[in-house]
Structure formats: structure tokens, C-alpha cells
Design brief:
This protein is of the alpha+beta class. The protein contains 25 helices and 20 strands. The strands form 5 sheets. Strands 4, 5, 6, 7, 8 and 9 form a 6-stranded antiparallel sheet that branches. A 5-stranded mixed sheet has the order 2-1-3-14-15, covered by helices on one side. A 5-stranded antiparallel sheet has the order 11-10-18-17-16, sandwiched between helices. It is elongated and about 110 Å long.
């Protein structure tokens, strides 16, 4: 038998081919990477001139008229210190925890990079960035996670190290790094957290500052003392291991009680956050990014007491409304592990993403029954709430509660202290609200609250919310009627009315009164005071729509946002609360057009004046007699109409105003004035939906206005306007003198039922 020839093994040939392919791939990748670095990354590395010519940037600061700090923008609170001024202990503490081999590496610590990689493989997170890399990232680069950014950070670190000395790098870093609570640099942080200079800090305090760069916003000693304390211990241990402190110093520092003292000049009155943001936007519009670096000091027209009154009025009455609607259920839920350490971390992580909303504190439920709930807040404190603090959420604690409503272990809820200093479980309102007040004779804004709380509602509803005004717009149309020749005693039929489809260009429309009733022939005064819809539509129909829309421009309303049909009489256009306040000021001041303003003075740190408000004559847009008559009707609203509650509670006879409720109660308004001060309150949902059955402007907005005016009018004398020349009494009411003598020239219209 012939044997087949044995085929020789071809493995060496295959191996050589694979090796060549691998080497080729490595070469191609290396060349590609080199070209990418040379053409794409290196040319885009920023210039280092900013380090060489480093100068601190001074933030924009906003103050009330009585010099209370309400805003600081630019995040540049600092005092630059040379490295020789910074205590050795502070430098040692920082290097011990952030970059112990700082003076040995060339920008990248490869030992640390390897350690970080191993940590990631074992599911732990350990940073590998050196101080130089942090400086490159924070000073020059964007924060997005990308390969080009990582490569750029490494290359820039090498570039910085080859350009500047180690001491220069460390000096800039220690003055530039953000350390929480609007503080940049360690000297500023020492002032913020301990109220003293770096040179006066203890070892324990120094270690606490050194631990801040890892997570300055959420784990600083003001935001989260427990986490800051844990980090401090890590720093102290590292300082001891490296020989920077003795064992006795280490033990003494561990035992030391940290006295956190917020520097008085650094705490900002957050009740005026909407005011500060409004000013920031105006400054930015004019100066762009320079607004945050030139040290501008802005003095506003608001006063702290007025702003506080508006803030408290909004919060109190928004909560009252929200509680009327009932508890909605926990904000979220977190699964709490059985292990105590893991449970603590899980709870802390869940609460870190939910900032405090002034006195509304997020907390996680540890245990719950119908008469007792145990919770833990972000500071690691355990709180127990009994029956009296559970009334609002009683239904959510019953075993029969729905899954969405039920409060149980792991539920994330809000807690707050009541007047009695006892804790209760509550909730953040979903409804939005706003209030603005201004001086009727000048337009100077006295208070502005754009929402329930700036931390959860950034939108300023005073200036940015375009909403239907409802009946609060009616006084402006009645003012137009006076100019067209009507008088307060003119009779208008409040009887059923149908507008034919040919007039609406859509379909037939029958306007209705809010109470579903009709009063028959009534005076124009009563029609406005009682907010009769049908009579208002008849009045507008007589004046003509184009005339009325043009007339609104006298009060700075945007006519393009008003519908070109008869529904405009019922407030179906769009306005902002600030526009309504401006318009009502014209009635309050006798017919002058104001332009609301908030900034009275702008200077820099040296006192150089960039802007100062000068009083200028206001243009007259309304006959004084017109303003007087509308004012007298608006006083009827507070004496015997829908806002009678205002006069009863404030016990003044100079109050005037108008309630407003839009279709389906999507918006509730009250606009009014007294003592020369105009105020406008509004409530509604950002995504429009009904406020609820039996909710009106008188129930949701008027209480806000009253609560504010209780404080704001305390020192303001009663102010009643004098009767202007050219007015006479006829038919029991005011009439222009020329109309009485020559006959009313107003347009004729049919007052009979269709």
C-alpha cells in the first residue's frame, strides 16, 4: 500500500503573517495617533499667557437699596496670595491628599495613573489627575468626557510643566481652585468656612480645606458637614503617614471640634434670587462676559423688608393652595440596603441630587407607620415625626394607600419645621406663582418674586410668563370707552348675547358671566365693578376692536399679542405680570406712563460710576379725568366687589384693584394699589391646566396681595387722588364736563337683546 505524503506544518508561515499584520497595525495606529495629535490636538491647545499674566477676576455683586447682598455672579470670590504667604501646613495638606509626588513628576504621575486603573478594574473610583492636570482641566479645558479632552489635558500638563516652575503652578492652583460656597482659592475658603485667614487655621481646619477639591459643591462643611468631616480624616491620616504631622498632632486634630463660621460678607439673601438674576441678565446684555469680571456693584431699587414680605406672601399662600389640593405622594424612592454602611451611602447619594429648597429639606424614610415616621436628612441626622406632623400625609400612611401615594421605607419626601419648631412632612408645590410691586409715580420696582423658589423654578414668571389676563385686563377697555365718549352711568345690557359666525369668522359665540346669571340693564360702573362679561363684550363691540387694541398700547401692552376678535374683552390675549403692574400704575398716578426699572446705580470696586438713574418727567398718556374715574370704579371692587376682603383686612379706604380668572380657571390674578404702591399677584401651572373647581383670582391671588400689603403699607399714609378739573356729576356719577354740556359723543349701539 502506498502511503500518502505527509503535509508539512505551515504554522511558522501563519505566525509570520500575523506578526507582520500586527506590527503593521501598530505602526499605522501610531502614525495615525501622531498625526491626530499633531494636526488636531496640539494646534488647539490654549495659550498659557493667562497663567503668566494671571489676575483675579472680581465678580458682579447685586445689592438691595439698603445694601443687602442678594447676588454674586462670576464665581470669583478670592484674595490672591503668593506661595510664600500660604502657610507650609496648608501646602503640605493639599499635596498629601491631591498630589504627594508633585515635585517629582513632570505633569503626569504614572504611578498614580496605574493605581487608578487598577482601582477601576476592582469597581472602585480613584482619581489619577495631578495638580498640574487639574489646573489644565479647570483653567483651560471644557468638562466633557472625551478622548480629545483627556489627551489635551495630558499634553497641556506637560506644556505647563515645561513653561512654569513648580512653585508657580502650585501658586496659581491654590488661588484658582473652586472650594464651594462661591469661594475660589484657599484664603477665600478659610474666610467662608471659618471666618479667618489661612495663617490662623488649626491643623484640623487646614485638613478640612485640603479635602475640598474632590467635591467642593456637595461635600463642603456647610453643604454636608458629615462628608466633609470624613474627608478631613482621610487628609489627616495621609499627612501623618507622610510625616507632615506628628502622632500627637494627628490625634489632637482628629478630636478637635470644627467650628464652622460662615463669613458674614459671603452669605447671600436668597429671598431675592429672582431680582439678582434679572439684574444679571441686564448687565450681561450690555457688558457680555465682562459683567462677571470687572467688579461691578449694582444697587437696585428693592428693599429687603419689601422683598421679604413678597417672598413670605408667595410661599405662604402657594402652600395653602397646594395643601387644598392634597398630598401627591413621595418625590421618589430608593432601595435601602440592609448593610448599615451601604445604606448610609445609598441615602446620601439619593439626597445629594435634591438640594434644599430654603426650609424644605429632602429626607429618606427609614421606617413608617400611621402615627410615626423615622427619616434621615442629607446631614446624616435621624428625625422622628409623630402624629401632629403627619396630618397632611395621613392618607399616604394607611396600608390601603395606592402605590403612588404610599409613604414607606425608602420614600424620598420633603420635611419642614412649622411655627412651633416641630417637623412635619410636606411637599414642594407644582403650581407656579409670582408677585411684583412698584412705585406708581416712578416705576421703581420694590419687590419681585418670580416663582415659589428659585432653586426649583428658574423661570421668572413676573417677566417671562405670557399668560391670559382674564378680567384683570377689563379696566383698560373701560378706560378706552371713556375716551370714546361713554360715562360711568352709561347703561349697558347684561342680557344674553350671541355673536354670529359671520362676525367671529369661526362659529357663533355666546359669552357667559362667571356666575351664569344676567343682571339686565346696568351702568358701566357696575359692569366693571362686578366684572360682567356680557356687558364688557357689548361695550367692546360698540367701540370696535381696532380702536381698543390700539388703545392698549398706551399702557405698554403688546397689541400683537392680543386677539383680533371680541374675546379680547374677556382677557384672551397674553400679558406678563410686570406689564399689568405698569398699566395699573397709570391709573394710580393720574394718567402717566411709567417704565418699570430696577437698577438705580452701577459702580466698580473703586467707586467709579458707570450708571446712575436720573429722574425724568413721565409722559402723559391718559386724561387725568379718565384715570380718576377708573380709579373710583376700581375702589368699588375693593369696597363692595370681588376684592372686598382687601379693604376689610387692611382697613384702608385708598385701595383699588381688579381680580381676574381665565377660562377654566387656568390663571388667577389680582392687580391693585394703595398708598402709591402697585402690586400684582398671579398663580397658575406652567403647563396650563385648571387650578381647580371653585378656585378664582379672589381665592388664589388676592390673598398673596393682601399678605404683602399688610407689611408694605404700614408706613405709607392713605392716599386719595384729588378731583381733576373738568369733571361734573350727572345721573349720580362722574361725567366729562364737555360731554354734559354738549351731549355724549360716544358711538351708538344696540343695547336690546338679539
Amino acid at each position: 500500500m502506498n502511503k500518502k505524503p505527509i503535509k508539512q506544518n505551515s504554522s511558522p508561515s501563519v505566525f509570520k503573517t500575523a506578526l507582520v499584520a500586527l506590527l503593521t497595525t501598530v505602526v499605522v495606529c501610531s502614525v495615525s495617533a501622531g498625526m491626530y495629535l499633531y494636526y488636531c490636538v496640539i494646534p488647539n491647545l490654549p495659550s498659557l499667557d493667562v497663567i503668566d499674566n494671571y489676575a483675579p477676576q472680581i465678580p458682579l455683586r447685586v445689592y438691595t437699596a439698603d445694601k443687602v447682598l442678594i447676588g454674586e455672579f462670576g464665581e470669583e470670590h478670592r484674595r490672591y496670595m503668593s506661595l510664600t504667604e500660604i502657610p507650609v501646613m496648608m501646602k503640605n495638606a493639599l499635596l498629601a491628599i491631591e498630589d504627594s509626588r508633585f515635585y517629582e513628576h513632570s505633569g503626569i504621575d504614572w504611578f498614580r495613573v496605574a493605581g487608578a486603573a487598577l482601582s477601576h478594574l476592582h469597581g472602585r473610583h480613584q482619581g489619577g489627575s495631578t495638580i498640574t492636570m487639574q489646573l489644565a482641566r479647570n483653567f483651560f479645558l471644557k468638562s466633557e468626557q472625551s478622548i480629545s479632552r483627556k489627551i489635551g489635558e495630558a499634553l497641556l500638563a506637560y506644556k505647563i510643566e515645561s513653561t512654569f516652575s513648580k512653585d508657580k503652578i502650585l501658586e496659581v492652583y491654590m488661588n484658582q481652585i473652586y472650594l464651594g460656597e462661591r469661594s475660589f482659592g484657599f484664603e477665600a475658603a478659610a474666610e467662608t468656612y471659618f471666618g479667618k485667614s489661612l495663617k490662623d487655621l488649626s491643623i484640623a481646619q487646614t485638613a478640612m480645606l485640603a479635602g475640598l477639591p474632590q467635591s467642593p459643591g456637595s461635600h463642603n462643611p456647610i453643604a454636608n458637614f458629615k462628608r466633609a468631616k470624613l474627608r478631613q480624616k482621610v487628609v489627616l491620616r495621609r499627612m501623618y503617614e507622610l510625616g507632615h504631622i506628628t502622632e500627637k498632632q494627628y490625634q489632637d486634630a482628629i478630636k478637635e471640634a470644627d467650628l464652622i463660621k460662615e463669613h458674614p460678607n459671603q452669605r447671600i439673601d436668597m429671598h431675592s434670587a429672582y431680582v439678582a438674576e434679572f439684574v444679571r441678565q441686564m448687565l450681561y446684555a450690555q457688558y457680555k462676559d465682562h459683567a462677571y469680571t470687572q467688579g461691578f456693584i449694582v444697587i437696585t431699587t428693592v428693599h429687603k423688608s419689601s422683598q421679604d414680605a413678597a417672598y413670605n406672601a408667595i410661599r405662604r399662600n402657594t402652600l395653602i393652595y397646594d395643601h387644598r389640593r392634597g398630598y401627591r405622594g413621595p418625590e421618589s424612592f430608593v432601595e435601602i440596603p440592609p448593610d448599615a454602611v451601604e445604606a448610609d451611602d445609598t441615602i446620601q447619594d439619593a439626597l445629594d441630587d435634591r438640594p434644599d429648597c430654603d426650609d424644605f429639606i429632602p429626607a429618606v424614610v427609614l421606617a413608617a407607620s400611621e402615627n410615626r415616621v423615622q427619616l434621615r436628612n442629607a446631614h446624616g441626622e435621624d428625625i422622628i415625626i409623630g402624629n401632629s406632623g403627619l396630618k397632611f400625609v395621613a392618607a399616604a400612611l394607611r396600608p390601603s394607600a395606592s402605590a403612588k401615594l404610599r409613604i414607606h421605607r425608602g420614600s424620598i419626601v420633603r420635611i419642614a419645621k412649622r411655627d412651633s419648631e416641630q417637623w412635619e412632612i410636606t411637599q414642594l408645590p407644582l403650581v407656579a406663582s409670582a408677585f411684583v410691586s412698584l412705585e406708581a409715580n416712578t416705576g421703581a420696582i420694590q419687590s419681585m418674586i418670580g416663582g415659589f423658589d428659585f432653586s426649583v423654578q428658574k423661570m421668572n414668571h413676573v417677566t417671562q410668563a405670557w399668560r391670559q389676563p382674564g378680567s384683570v385686563i377689563k379696566p383698560f377697555f373701560y378706560s378706552a370707552a371713556l375716551e370714546a365718549g361713554f360715562s360711568p352711568s352709561t347703561i349697558i345690557d347684561d342680557t344674553p348675547l350671541t355673536i354670529q359666525a359671520s362676525e367671529t369668522n369661526y362659529k357663533a359665540w355666546s359669552p357667559q358671566n362667571h356666575d351664569g346669571k344676567f343682571e339686565g340693564p346696568i351702568s358701566m360702573r357696575r359692569a366693571l365693578a362686578r366684572s360682567r362679561n356680557v356687558a364688557s363684550v357689548r361695550l367692546l363691540k360698540s367701540m370696535t376692536i381696532p380702536y381698543a387694541r390700539t388703545y392698549l398700547e398706551r399702557f405698554s401692552f403688546d397689541s400683537s399679542k392680543q386677539p383680533n376678535n371680541l374675546t379680547i374683552a374677556l382677557g384672551t390675549g397674553q400679558v406678563t405680570p410686570l406689564q399689568i403692574a405698569s398699566g395699573f400704575a397709570t391709573f394710580a398716578n393720574g394718567g402717566l406712563q411709567i417704565q418699570p426699572f430696577m437698577i438705580s446705580r452701577i459702580t466698580d470696586m473703586s467707586g467709579k460710576v458707570f450708571f446712575e438713574r436720573k429722574d425724568t418727567p413721565l409722559p402723559r398718556v391718559l386724561d387725568p379725568r379718565n384715570a380718576f374715574i377708573i380709579d373710583s370704579i376700581l375702589r368699588d371692587v375693593t369696597q363692595s366687589g370681588t376684592a372686598t376682603r382687601a379693604s376689610l383686612q387692611l382697613k384702608r379706604n385708598d385701595l383699588a384693584g381688579k381680580t381676574g380668572t381665565t377660562s377654566n380657571a387656568f390663571d388667577g390674578w389680582y392687580a391693585g394699589y394703595g398708598g402709591g404702591l402697585v402690586g400684582v399677584a398671579w398663580m397658575g401651572y406652567d403647563t396650563p391646566r385648571t387650578l381647580g373647581q371653585h378656585e378664582y383670582g379672589a381665592s388664589v391671588a388676592l390673598p398673596i396681595w393682601i399678605d404683602y400689603m399688610k407689611t408694605a403699607l404700614l408706613d405709607r399714609p392713605i392716599s386719595l387722588p384729588p378731583t381733576p378739573d373738568g369733571l361734573l356729576i350727572a345721573n349720580g356719577d362722574w361725567m366729562y364736563q364737555e360731554y354734559l354740556l354738549n351731549g355724549e359723543p360716544h358711538l351708538q349701539y344696540d343695547t336690546s337683546p338679539p
